[in-house]
Design brief:
Layout (H helix, E strand, L loop, with lengths): L4 E8 L10 E9 L4 E9 L3 E10 L2 E12 L2 E11 L12 E13 L2 E15 L4 E19 L2 E9 L4 E11 L2 E10 L2 E11 L3 E10 L15 E2 L1 E11 L2 E12 L2 E2 L2 E2 L6 E14 L2 E12 L2 E15 L2 E12 L5 E11 L4 E10 L2 E11 L3 E11 L8 E13 L3 E9 L5 E10 L19 E9 L9 E4 L2 E4 L5 E6 L4 E6 L10 E5 L3 E3 L1 E2 L6 E7 L4
Parallel strand pairs: 1-30, 31-39
Antiparallel strand pairs: 1-2, 2-3, 3-4, 4-5, 5-6, 6-7, 7-8, 8-9, 9-10, 10-11, 11-12, 12-13, 13-14, 14-16, 15-17, 16-17, 17-20, 18-19, 20-21, 21-22, 22-23, 23-24, 24-25, 25-26, 26-27, 27-28, 28-29, 29-30, 31-34, 31-38, 32-33, 32-35, 35-37, 36-39
Length: about 550
Amino acid sequence: MRSCICTSILLAACGPGISHAQVFELSGGSSSLYQADGAQLQVRGADYAASGGMGIVAGRFAGGLSAERRIGKSTYSAGSATIPVDLPTDIFSAGHYVTAIGLGVRAESGPTTLTGFLGGLSKNLSSPFVSGAFFERPGVFLSVQRKVAPGWTASSMSLFGGASTTLESLQWQPAEETKIAVTGGIGSKEPYGAASFSMFRPRVDIKAAYIQAGSRFRRADAQTPISSEPVRENLTVTFRPARQTSIGFTRQNFSTPPYADGVYGATGQNVRSTLNEMVGSVDVAGCSITASGFRSSFGANGDYAVSFSATRELNSRLRIQENYLAAYPDHAASNTSWINGIQEVLRSRWSLSETVSRSNGQNTVGIGGTFLSNFATVSADYETYYIASRASNPFEQALLLNGDVRLPGGLAVTAGTFVDPDGALRYTAGMKAERSRNAAAAPSSVAAHAIGTMVVRGRVLDLHGRPMMGAAILIDQRTAYSDSDGYFCLREWKAHEHSLQVIADGFLDGLQYRVISAPAEVKSSSDGTNEEVSILVERIPSS
């Protein structure tokens, strides 16, 4: 398996005929996670951006060009584009999008925002460093969103090309922490209706939705990208009756287009899957205890599973952890695992972890650790995942390696391992070097403000407050990925408002996520004075 090597060089050009605000970014590499080899060039200015690239993705030649220009409050685009197709009722699954080739516009006028695209639906072959699109069929996309009254927002989304989609929505947000929404219409000529409610309070969080969709429902009649759709009843309730104590219940139903002939959704009806989970955690006498119970089904397969975990810090340098995992598949033998772990802090920058596990009569010993410094951050940790689609053996323990090394001259090297939705271990690594020059200064001088002083900065975390590396964020038509600390940023010369979209199925680890909270719009502001955008995501524990 090949690892991914990605190099990015950021140069601000100066000289006759080239604006000092122009930025060139060249990237290229190879990835086993994305099965891709290629390169692309991006050019950015104060009010425009363009990119082009080519390579081999999934064994096929891929190439594409795209450009966008902002004029006032409108943004015009040409070439390949990513079009968000999220709905206000998508509180359990966000990051839906389609790819297209053609001409697009996003315009704002008072309380109304209009997004349109004319061209064709596209099959998307993409990786972080090369993107490609293949024309499938003519298509027209139109979306209108309007604030009709204080707290009320109406929206409409239509897509014509192949089987048509028309969905109408109404959302009421009486307070920042409370939202109620309804959606109705057709998707790929299949009926669709949804109602959702979400409320976040200091003691309780509630998310509930009911979705009724046809057996072949899809938001767009295109082969890719494919993502699971929540259907029927979906509910998540979390109680926090006391400090460091929580009890939660989750029930979710998904509909996934079938996989046939190497393409999702090629034939047949969608496959239904269900996940029920009960989880509780409490801290008692310095010991953190967590217990979970699962019942999942994927197609004709299913299983029951339980997990127990207890962690205690004996002192400032020593922590012990005990885990018990058991799975009872419907059509296979049960399996159990005991995992015992010890973590020792050797010095302020060094820690060592030791793991001994016993699973189905076999013993395994693992050693990992962490090194932290201004120069490098390196870690090796054992994690256990619940793979709901793998009913016969749903628990997967894997050694996750992560490294972030910062070299002189602005060069940074990152690497990591991930567990994909099927439980397989995947690898990715990257390298990035940045430089910029101010055209108003001497040719050899370097100035950070040559790439713009207005910034959109944010951070992506999971529900436990851990930073998410490799999260895919779409700011208008520009894609940004979070670093090892979960941070992402976009620089520009003038302050603008941008639409923000979390591409939940485009994270670098190849897993599926749901967006818990993320702003729909962000505005850049002066560096050092801007507020940090906060995004919360949660991994979907099923394929």
